[in-house]
């Protein structure tokens, strides 16, 4: 008979993973315990390596780096002392229909109220199925009183792994899982939580409109390091539903000003149409509300089509029918104030009037961030390094590790004293080379930036014919303003800010066409192109289409412009927001120039061959490929998109991209062979025809494949499957090439997010003028690398802060080297990428300034993110900014249908950097940004 728990729902124990029930498994004795574990074995700065018999998922650490200026950094990490003891793992299966918050409360009640004599001391639960106990439970005969004993887990393998003496096998991974569950057990009992973050009930909050508020929270994660176990703590930002009266939340969702908030607007009689009802329903689905006056809690499933005074239902007692409005009038002895307003409905079909509902606080909105809130979320999350560390210290006090009964019960200790310090190095940047005629042909970046005055672009492009299409009203953007913008852009291209950059513009008076933003966008773009042909005596269509977008409601226009420009016409397009254009200075237009030049086939700047000889070596050419996979939003059955981007030139500065549609949520790139083959053929073709390299020497000799987006648990699969395809393609093309494959991860996933100079008081630290210790924002300088102290005990990995800080806290990226034919032992060189200023916000890591040019949040990521632009906006494949959504008859589209609807970039744009600066709102900065990478 299946046992059942009390306090609200079924609870049972069951075997999982094939483990044997019964006595715990015993293991060998541990060498070293408690705080001394790992001491003298492999410490920060030690040159000891992992024993030969210990296996690695990727490449074993070959040594520690020496290049660059040695420094010290403070990391937001605390050291954990782990005892030599057993942890008992139980499969705690609760009803699968229950939400995690209810599961947590059920297990809490089970341990503290229902059976405290069994669960003494209490164990840690992960809100799903894993329960870890410090002692073996006494469940009586047959181990069947409440649940069945699964198997015990030993912390001994984890300690041996941290000492570099054991492979990271299933036992090690399970031990880390157990420790992560133990340290989060107390916070999730008392606060709203999401994965590894929790959000204090009385924490910092900020209303942002659209029915949401932002809440400051904290993240914690147990991580392995050389000779120690660490707990990383960081601040986190959560998107929550705004609490309060449902009417007020709905007003906020539609951004209705306070003086215009009339509840009757939510009546079909008042013009509340089906489209707005669907939008509101999509927002409110799954939201918990309390119903007055009983305070009964319900979960909104959908919204009614009609108001409470029209929604009728059958009475259970006595028969007959009544309306929701009449029912509540009788039950509460007073009529509804707004009877014509629609109702919220539960999954069982119950209908509740809007005015009786209040949205409960503490509800995480498990949705992707609406694009309208991106900037506000970044501003809320952004903190200078010392401010971020202060917030983390506050979070550590709130966590109160020493007071957690769960941490004490398992014999753990977390040192909450000063943050961990470790060795770091600052790499010397390479020199950059500009075009002929520059007064200073090479430049050495300082703090990740450099001055472009008196520089000519390495390969500037001539713009012969171009057009400007304005989708804002002439009243807001008149002809005079547009002609002024045109003049500023031409000046930026040729002389004013970027002196003599070399971009020439033949056509000084391009066609200006005002388009109907509510009409067919493709027709407007095509008509502008035809006008250009007529104006230029049938010499050809435009080289460039500059589109000025309205400030609001521009996402669909933008998508249509990109689809028709890139995929249909094969012409470069640059979208700009009207409000930015109207108040733009010359620096803004200089940025636009730097973006359009690569789109037209030009190159802005390249690394100097002498200072980056291992990267730019004509006798030993390198191709760098970046690959990424973008999955649909949770709950969507839409496909995933894969991209591979690679350079085609000797200077690793000119990139081409490939994009494919594949089965939803499959992480391995299924079409990798064809995508890599396309880039390799483009590489050979460009070198042979554009660089005049003999065919016999045009193939690369080194291939660096940066695979982004994979978790540590997927490293082995990527190594075994994708690298095999790489080798097969090279063999088919007769290319003999050495492959190195680092897998970069944005540290937002791991949250080792703050490197601070090791100063006596980082909170008041101000680096002296010209200091190499920190940049002007208080961040560590661009090129800071850490390969000791916080890195993996076995694997070849390192942290690299590749960009200069402008605002907030710069975050490093984490690289794991999965494969290495080239025998690179260290991070010994660096490379750069063209300036591209789409939303530079290093404080929360949402943009491309994170790892090298071809990888995360850079080219490969951008290509995936703009996948929706490859589907005709007028078709039934509807793509939103947050998810792929299907409407009408397209709801049953299969993968083949998506692949058939997909349209690749056409014409010469397929061999250009069409994906550069796709933002309609380019943000301008004084200087470009420096990048570093593994070479």
UniProtKB/TrEMBL annotation:
Residue ranges of every copy of the PAZ domain listed in the record: 245-361
InterPro entries: ArgoL1 (IPR014811), ArgoL2 (IPR032472), Argonaute_Mid_dom (IPR032473), Argonaute_N (IPR032474), PAZ_dom (IPR003100), PAZ_dom_sf (IPR036085), Piwi (IPR003165), RNaseH-like_sf (IPR012337)
Pfam families assigned to the protein according to its UniProt record, in alphabetical order: ArgoL1, ArgoL2, ArgoMid, ArgoN, PAZ, Piwi
Name recorded for this polypeptide: Argonaute-like protein
Organism the protein comes from: Dendrothele bispora (strain CBS 962.96)
Region entry Disordered, spans: 1-45
Sequence ranges assigned to domain Piwi in this UniProt record: 544-821
Organismal lineage: Eukaryota, Fungi, Dikarya, Basidiomycota, Agaricomycotina
Feature: compositional bias, Gly residues: 1-21
Molecular-function annotations in GO: RNA binding
């Amino acid at each position: 008979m299946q046992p059942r728990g009390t306090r609200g729902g079924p609870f049972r124990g069951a075997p999982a993973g094939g483990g044997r029930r019964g006595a715990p498994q015993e293991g060998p004795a541990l060498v070293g315990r408690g705080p001394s574990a790992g001491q003298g074995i492999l410490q920060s700065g030690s040159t000891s390596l992992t024993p030969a018999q210990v296996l690695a998922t990727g490449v074993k650490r070959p040594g520690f780096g020496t290049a660059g200026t040695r420094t010290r950094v403070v990391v937001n990490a605390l050291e954990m002392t782990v005892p030599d003891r057993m942890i008992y793992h139980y499969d705690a299966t609760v009803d699968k229909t229950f939400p995690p918050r209810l599961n947590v409360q059920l297990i809490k009640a089970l341990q503290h109220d229902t059976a405290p004599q069994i669960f003494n001391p209490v164990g840690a639960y992960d809100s799903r199925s894993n329960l870890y106990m410090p002692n073996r439970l006494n469940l009586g005969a047959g181990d069947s009183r409440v649940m069945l004993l699964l198997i015990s887990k030993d912390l001994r393998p984890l300690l041996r792994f941290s000492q570099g003496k054991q492979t990271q096998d299933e036992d090690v991974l399970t031990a880390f899982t157990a420790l992560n569950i133990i340290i989060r057990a107390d916070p999730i009992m008392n606060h709203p939580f999401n994965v590894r973050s929790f959000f204090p009930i009385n924490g910092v909050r900020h209303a942002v409109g659209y029915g949401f508020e932002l809440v400051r929270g904290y993240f914690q994660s147990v991580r392995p390091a050389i000779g120690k176990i660490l707990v990383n703590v960081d601040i986190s930002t959560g998107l929550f539903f705004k609490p309060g009266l449902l009417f007020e939340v709905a007003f906020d969702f539609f951004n209705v000003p306070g003086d215009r908030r009339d509840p009757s607007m939510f009546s079909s009689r008042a013009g509340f149409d089906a489209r707005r009802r669907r939008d509101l329903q999509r927002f409110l689905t799954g939201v918990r509300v309390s119903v007055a006056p009983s305070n009964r809690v319900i979960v909104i499933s959908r919204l009614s089509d009609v108001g409470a005074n029209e929604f009728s239902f059958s009475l259970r007692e006595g028969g007959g029918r009544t309306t929701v409005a009449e029912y509540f009038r009788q039950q509460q002895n007073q009529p509804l104030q707004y009877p014509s307003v629609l109702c919220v409905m539960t999954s069982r079909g119950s209908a509740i009037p809007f005015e009786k509902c209040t949205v409960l606080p503490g509800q995480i909105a498990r949705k992707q961030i609406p694009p309208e809130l991106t900037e506000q979320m970044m501003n809320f999350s952004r903190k200078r390094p010392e401010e971020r560390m202060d917030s983390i210290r506050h979070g550590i006090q709130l966590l109160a590790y020493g007071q957690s009964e769960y941490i004490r019960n398992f014999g753990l200790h977390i040192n909450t004293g000063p943050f961990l310090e470790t060795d770091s190095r600052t790499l010397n940047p390479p020199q950059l080379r500009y075009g002929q005629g520059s007064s200073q042909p090479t430049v050495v970046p300082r703090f990740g930036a450099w001055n472009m005055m008196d520089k000519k672009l390495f390969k500037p492009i001539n713009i012969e014919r171009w057009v400007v299409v304005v989708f804002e009203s002439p009243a807001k953007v008149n002809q005079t303003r547009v002609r002024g913008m045109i003049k500023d852009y031409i000046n930026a291209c040729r002389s004013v800010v970027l002196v003599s950059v070399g971009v020439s513009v033949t056509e000084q008076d391009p066609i200006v066409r005002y388009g109907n933003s509510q009409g067919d966008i493709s027709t407007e773009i095509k008509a502008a192109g035809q006008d250009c042909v007529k104006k230029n005596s049938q010499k050809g269509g435009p080289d460039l289409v500059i589109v000025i977008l309205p400030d609001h409601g521009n996402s669909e226009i933008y998508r249509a412009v990109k689809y028709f420009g890139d995929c249909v016409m094969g012409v470069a397009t640059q979208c700009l927001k009207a409000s930015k254009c109207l108040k733009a200075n010359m620096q803004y237009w200089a940025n636009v120039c730097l973006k359009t030049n690569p789109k037209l086939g030009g190159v802005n700047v390249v690394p100097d061959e002498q200072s980056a000889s291992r990267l730019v070596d004509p006798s030993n050419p390198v191709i760098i490929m970046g690959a990424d996979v973008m999955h649909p939003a949770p709950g969507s059955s839409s496909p995933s998109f894969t991209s591979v981007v690679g350079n085609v030139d000797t200077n690793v500065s000119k990139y081409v991209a490939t994009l494919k549609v594949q089965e939803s949520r499959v992480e391995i790139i299924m079409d990798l062979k064809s995508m890599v083959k396309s880039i390799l053929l483009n590489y050979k073709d460009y070198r042979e025809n554009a660089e005049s390299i003999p065919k016999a020497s045009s193939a690369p000799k080194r291939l660096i494949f940066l695979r982004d987006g994979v978790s540590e648990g997927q490293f082995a699969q990527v190594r075994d499957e994708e690298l095999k395809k790489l080798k097969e393609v090279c063999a088919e093309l007769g290319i003999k090439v050495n492959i190195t494959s680092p897998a970069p991860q944005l540290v937002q996933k791991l949250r080792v997010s703050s490197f601070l100079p090791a100063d006596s008081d980082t909170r008041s630290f101000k680096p002296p003028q010209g200091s190499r210790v920190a940049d002007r924002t208080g961040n560590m300088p661009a090129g800071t690398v850490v390969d000791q102290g916080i890195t993996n005990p076995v694997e070849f990995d390192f942290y690299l802060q590749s960009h200069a800080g402008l605002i907030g806290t710069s975050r490093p990226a984490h690289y794991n080297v999965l494969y290495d034919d080239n025998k690179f032992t260290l991070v010994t060189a660096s490379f750069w990428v063209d300036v591209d200023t789409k939303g530079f916000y290093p404080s929360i890591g949402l943009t491309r300034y994170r790892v090298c040019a071809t990888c995360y949040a850079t080219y490969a990521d951008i290509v995936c993110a703009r996948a929706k632009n490859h589907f005709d906006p007028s078709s039934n494949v509807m793509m939103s900014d947050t998810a792929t959504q299907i409407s009408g008859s397209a709801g049953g589209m299969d993968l083949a249908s998506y692949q058939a609807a997909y349209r690749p970039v056409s014409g010469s744009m397929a061999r250009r950097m069409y994906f550069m600066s796709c933002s309609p709102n380019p943000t301008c900065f004084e200087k470009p940004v420096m990048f570093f990478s593994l070479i």
